[in-house]
Structure formats: C-alpha cells, structure tokens
Specification:
mainly alpha; Lysozyme; two-stranded antiparallel ribbon; two-stranded antiparallel sheet; 4 strands; about 55% helix; about 5% strand; globular; glycosidase
C-alpha cells in the first residue's frame, strides 16, 4: 500500500522487510565507525536496559555515525548529534558524539517507547518499537 501525504510518498510506502534490508546494509557499511562508540553505547544500554544494537542502529540510520554531520549538526542545522536530537524539542547535553549525548537521546527513546507501551498494551514488543 502506498500512502501520500501532501503529494509526497510517505515512509510507510515501503515494505517493512525492504526497510530492514536497507537498515542492515547501512549498518554493515557503518560498522567500522560504530566501533569507536562501542563502549559508551554498551554503558548507556546497560544503564537503561536497552539492547545496544538498537542504539547503534539509530546512530547508523540517523547520522551514518556522524558521516552526514557538520560539527554535529544536520544540513538544516535543526538536529544535533549522532542520534539527531531535534533542537526545537530539546536542549542537547554534551558534545554531539559524547556518551552524555547518547545517554540523553537514549533516555528520550526509552520514554517514547514507554508512552507507546502505555497507549498500546496489547501490542507485542516489535509493534511497540516500530
């Protein structure tokens, strides 16, 4: 099914499996850069009871592990850091690639997941995470 929003194809137009394949290819390409952040990612994940692979996947998808950033900012200078924290909603903590910043963004992620879980308690984990 293809849905259109304001004349554009929405992200939901692409199948879930095709999306997973793209995520895997991107993550494989980013693995060398991700190694630099392995210890902070694992520490943050352990403290927040998250899978470190989830944090790494978000970092890979949002900023290509910093490859797409200019001094931590996206091209429009609206999002900051490895996990692309929106400047409209939040004031970023720490340097764009610091453990402190990864922790801030991951904490926001946990809060968001918990909100979805509260609204949709009958959904399974994959549905809630998606």
């Amino acid at each position: 099914k293809v849905r259109f929003l304001d004349g554009r194809v929405s992200k939901s137009a692409f199948s879930y499996n095709a999306g997973l394949a793209m995520v895997r290819r991107t993550a494989e390409a980013d693995i060398v850069r991700l190694r630099k952040y392995e210890i902070p990612i694992k520490r943050v994940a352990r403290n927040l009871c998250l899978d470190p692979a989830l944090i790494a996947a978000i970092i890979s998808q949002e900023s290509r592990v910093g490859l797409l950033l200019d001094n931590g900012w996206d091209q429009e200078r609206q999002k900051y850091g490895l996990m692309q924290l929106g400047r409209q909603q939040y004031h970023p903590f720490g340097l764009w690639d610091s453990e402190e910043h990864i922790n801030q963004c991951s904490t926001i992620l946990v809060r968001s997941i918990n909100e979805v879980r509260a609204r949709h308690p009958t959904w399974n984990w994959d549905e809630q995470l998606r």
